[in-house]
Specification:
The complex is a heterodimer of chains A (about 775) and B (about 170). With about 775 residues, chain A is an alpha+beta fold. Helix content of chain A is about 25%, strand content about 20%. Chain B has a five-stranded mixed sheet with strand order 2-1-5-3-4, sandwiched between helices. The chains are: A alpha+beta (about 775), B alpha+beta (about 170).
């Protein structure tokens, strides 16, 4: 069958097969879509034999043939069992994922899933992550998709592999397969005969397509899934072991540093290459158009040469930046695409009270603690790049185009880096490494950006504006809801060479692919733009700017941070207008039972509404289901405010989370806690500094983030487990609810409705004093 | 020739005297625990202990160290036999990406060696220079509290107002 989505026309274009004969049931559709956005269409209207599914997440859309549409998670795109699990005759079990460890603990969680269904202790499995030379292609590790996509694939692939091995053993033993038991890769018969996986694999070919139905274990018997297996990477990280691409040392490795233009679109006019080449240790200055780098034997020599090269280089003027004071006003003019993402009408009561509000968010940066780094090696016509990119396959394709090399001569191997939280400089520095390595045949080249480069060449999360207007009836029910948002692109992932900044600087520059809006239900700027609340009349507009005054792209939760902040702040305004408690008001407008349970659990555990409060303290509540299809998160917070300075501290936070079947409880807690703190930093404190000349946030003093003195005293995360239910991604799910709860707590503490982020600081002080 | 005493071992290195300690540790001695974060002394990812004090190794030229002993996270233990702070960080799973963690542990180690029983306020003030972007702060503090025998967060009294604390500001 074919499913269609009326909001996808702008991406799919004329090929979309409009099957609109059956009404779209939102809840059913969400259920069917599961973890990823699947839009089904056929190349020719009415020719369903050619039906395809398209997974449209960040990055390029992925087309899925009919043969694999029914498979679980990323088995849709990588259906062969032996692309996930390989067992050699000696019994060594190697499990592959096409996802990567970004610091969220997924390596451990995915290992648990495979270990559970392979009936093996996790320590017996060799577990490898994304590598274009070895792993399945799962696109990007982004959008809280990993456990849903790769986890579901591994769960099913592992169960099917185990069953195939058991069946092979049963056949050899001449008994029924259901009489056999498996434990730690040994298959045992009741009569004492046994066979290892290594022996069994010789009797069965694992190079076969997965099937839609898997012999999954009963979740009640799980022994590994659902336990807080300690993360496999932490012991090495706390003892100084080699853990990151930044730590790689290879024989003969040289060090490179790059010089970036001072502003966007500036071109290199002249440099002092001759002087630089005289500096100690300098091997080469690599220049291609405005892409400029220096290679030295030692890392410190490279840094010194980079400073001298930067100081001695002249650049053309480049282009001016917008006036930060008018960014939000300008954004409305720049948004030339107006996409209606919701328009529903039902019978409702008569409006007696109408409220409206406008919210703004400034540009913010990812702020990785370690600047982006990569190692490149060009040898015998082949390029290898070790990278902390979130998508080794998209990067490989971009590098192939940039270097004019066949894809099969380029290998991108993921090695962990500093936390990225989205599209930071990882891909760009990998492009630098490849461009420089090509000029250094046979020598591994390690290149790391400097701090000011990571700050000023980030793909920032876009400034946004939201407007909301809603009415209440006499009974305090919301009868209509009109919402609009304005934003530039949250998705400038690597879909062509031109999306790599160094490729834009070359003598023959590559142009970035045009910016296009991401589609619902995942959305980009409009992610979580549609409230999950039951609202009888609703219109939601996504106003998209295909042009970007500043480089922008994906940052943890994309538009959901701003949209949930706006929706949840406005729900509190409506609750106040209705004379209702904010939590009770939310429950009154929520029908989804899992959402209700999360809201109730968070409120109960927090002791909502926790009155009376200390002076200058306030509490607030926020809720969202991430993308309306991932984890449910409700957050209650207590803040303190110093009226004389506008200082705001998140003192306590309590969260309730439903992420479906929980794989690793402590892993989810760690992600929710981290999200609460990072969201507090964004929401309360952060804004990119720039003026019409250039970016002015060069370092941590010009882009302050939350420090220990502002860390909450406690964060309590309450998990609701759903054994057997699909895995739901959680890593980005607390960003929006935390932001909403903070805004509401500030009102509770000060009586001020602060609608412009960052919420804390001098602006708040002035409002309190006014 | 530059002479360095690192983790109790003496080294003679033929390197530029202006080389910051961080680069000597990582590249010449292959001690990767300390990380490059900013090169400006603003984030603490490079924190090591010199002569008993937590310092930013990205800022200190090797020539300025003289005979002062340098200690890095590699001296505290191994994955098989982690030191007390390392073990507490593992027990609390006090890392996400972990890039800042070696610096965090070395800064805390310097405090606990000088004062094995700091107050909550002392430990917070001491940790203030080091940045974590993943938001692991509460777990880092919990791990330090455990080794410092401080009460758990929920049992502690109101957090003191720090003179320097202006949420997020320097």
């Amino acid at each position: 069958m074919s499913r269609s989505d009326e909001h996808t026309d702008q991406r799919i274009g004329p090929c979309l097969d409009h099957h609109v004969d059956e009404p779209v049931d939102e809840s059913r559709r969400r259920f069917m879509l599961g973890s990823a956005l699947l839009v089904s269409f056929s190349m020719f209207p009415g020719v369903s034999a050619l039906a395809q599914e398209v997974i449209a997440d960040e990055g390029a859309a992925v087309h899925i043939g009919k043969a694999t549409q029914a498979l679980a998670g990323s088995l849709k795109t990588n259906p062969y069992l032996d692309s996930w699990i390989r067992i050699d005759r000696a019994g060594k079990v190697t499990v592959y994922t096409g996802k990567v460890e970004l610091g969220t603990g997924v390596r451990t969680a995915l290992l648990q899933i495979a270990a559970e269904e392979l009936a093996m202790a996790p320590r017996l499995i060799t577990f490898l992550t994304a590598d274009t030379g070895a792993s399945p292609d799962e696109g990007l590790t982004a959008g809280s998709h990993t456990i849903a996509d790769s986890g579901s694939a591994l769960l099913n692939a592992s169960a099917q592999v185990r069953a195939l091995l058991v069946e092979a053993a049963a056949k050899r033993f001449g008994i029924q397969s259901n009489l056999l038991s498996t434990r730690d890769s040994v298959i045992k018969a009741p009569d004492g005969r046994s066979m290892t996986y290594g022996e069994a694999v010789g009797l069965v070919d694992l190079h076969r397509m997965a099937t839609p139905v898997s012999p999954l274990k009963d979740p009640a018997t799980f022994g590994v899934i659902g336990t807080s297996l300690p993360r496999v990477d932490i012991p090495r990280k706390v003892t100084g072991g080699v853990s990151y691409v930044q730590d790689m040392l290879m024989p003969g490795m040289v060090h490179a540093r790059v010089v970036m233009p001072p502003v966007y679109d500036a071109r290199l006019v002249r440099t002092n290459t001759a002087e630089i080449l005289k500096m100690p240790g300098v091997i080469k200055v690599v220049q291609n158009g405005s892409m400029l780098a220096v290679v030295a034997k030692g890392e410190w020599q490279a840094v010194q040469a980079q400073r001298a090269l930067a100081a001695g280089s002249e650049w053309s003027a480049g282009r001016a930046l917008p006036d930060p004071a008018t960014v939000h006003r300008d954004l409305r003019k720049l948004c030339t695409e107006h996409i209606e993402i919701a328009n529903t009408h039902k019978v409702s009561g008569a409006a007696v009270k109408t409220l409206s509000a406008t919210y703004t968010k400034r540009y913010m940066m990812h702020g990785s603690i370690g600047p982006s780094c990569a190692v490149g090696l060009f040898k015998d016509g082949a390029m290898t790049v070790w990278t902390h990119s979130q998508g080794v396959y998209p990067l490989r394709d971009g590098l192939a185009e940039m270097l004019s090399m066949p894809k099969d001569t380029i290998r991108c191997i993921h090695v962990e880096g500093s936390g990225c939280y989205g599209h930071n400089g990882a891909d760009d520095v990998a492009a630098h490494a490849a461009l420089i390595a090509r000029e250094m045949e046979g020598k591994p080249v390690r290149v790391q950006w400097m701090r000011e480069q990571e700050h000023t060449w980030d793909h920032y999360t876009p400034a946004m504006v939201t407007e909301v207007k809603a009415s209440l009836d006499a009974g305090g029910n919301i009868v209509d809801w009109n919402y609009a948002l304005w934003s530039s692109s949250h998705n400038e992932r690597i879909v062509n060479a031109g999306r790599l900044i160094p490729a834009q600087l070359l003598d023959k520059p590559f142009a970035p692919a045009p910016s296009v809006p991401m589609v619902q239900p995942e959305g980009g700027g409009d992610r979580n733009g549609i409230p999950l609340y039951a609202l009888p009349n609703m219109q939601v507009m996504n106003n998209f700017s295909p042009t970007m005054p500043l480089h922008t792209s994906a940052m943890r939760s994309l538009g959901a941070h701003m949209n949930v902040f706006s929706i949840e702040a406005f729900m509190d305004e409506l609750a106040a207008a209705a004379g209702a408690d904010p939590v009770a008001f939310r429950l009154k407008h929520m029908q989804d039972p899992r959402a209700r349970e999360v809201i109730q659990r968070a409120a109960e555990k927090f002791g909502w509404p926790r009155a009376p409060r200390k002076r200058n303290h306030g509490v607030g509540f926020g809720f969202a289901r991430y993308k309306n299809l991932m984890a449910y998160v409700a957050v209650a917070v207590e803040v303190s405010v110093v009226p004389e300075t506008g200082q705001v501290i998140l003192e306590h936070a309590g969260a309730a989370v439903d992420a479906g079947q929980i794989v690793n409880p402590d892993g989810i807690r760690n992600q929710i806690e981290g999200g609460v703190i990072q969201s507090a930093s964004w929401t309360l404190y952060e804004a990119l500094q720039f003026d019409t000349s250039r970016i002015r946030s060069f370092d941590w003093s010009s882009y302050p983030i939350l420090r220990f003195s502002a860390a909450p005293r406690s964060i309590n995360v309450h998990l609701i487990d759903r054994p057997g239910a699909p895995f739901l991604g959680a890593a980005e799910a607390s960003m929006g609810p935390t932001a909403g709860a903070l805004g509401n707590a500030l009102f509770d503490a000060t009586g001020q409705r602060v609608r412009d982020m960052p919420l804390a600081g001098d602006g708040l002080r002035r409002r309190i004093e006014a | 020739m530059i002479h360095l005493t690192v983790n109790g071992v003496q080294h003679a290195l033929d390197i530029d005297p202006s080389t910051p300690l961080l680069y000597a540790l990582r590249n010449d001695l292959q001690l990767h625990g300390a990380k490059f974060g900013c090169g400006l002394g603003q984030c603490g990812a490079c924190t090591v202990i010199v002569d008993g004090e937590a310092v930013f190794s990205c800022l200190i030229p090797v020539a300025s160290l003289g005979n002062k002993p340098v200690r890095t996270i590699e001296s505290l233990g191994t994955p098989e036999r982690p030191g007390p702070l390392q073990k507490a960080f593992i027990d609390h799973q006090a890392a996400q990406c972990g890039y800042c963690i070696a610096g965090m542990i070395m800064r805390a180690q310097a405090l606990l060696e000088r004062n094995p029983h700091p107050t909550e306020r002392e430990s917070l003030e001491h940790m203030e220079p080091n940045l974590c972007r993943c938001g692991t702060h509460t777990r880092i503090l919990a791990a330090i509290r455990e080794v410092a025998h401080l009460p758990k967060a929920d049992a502690s009294h109101d957090k003191p107002q720090l003179a320097a604390s202006h949420g997020g500001a320097q």
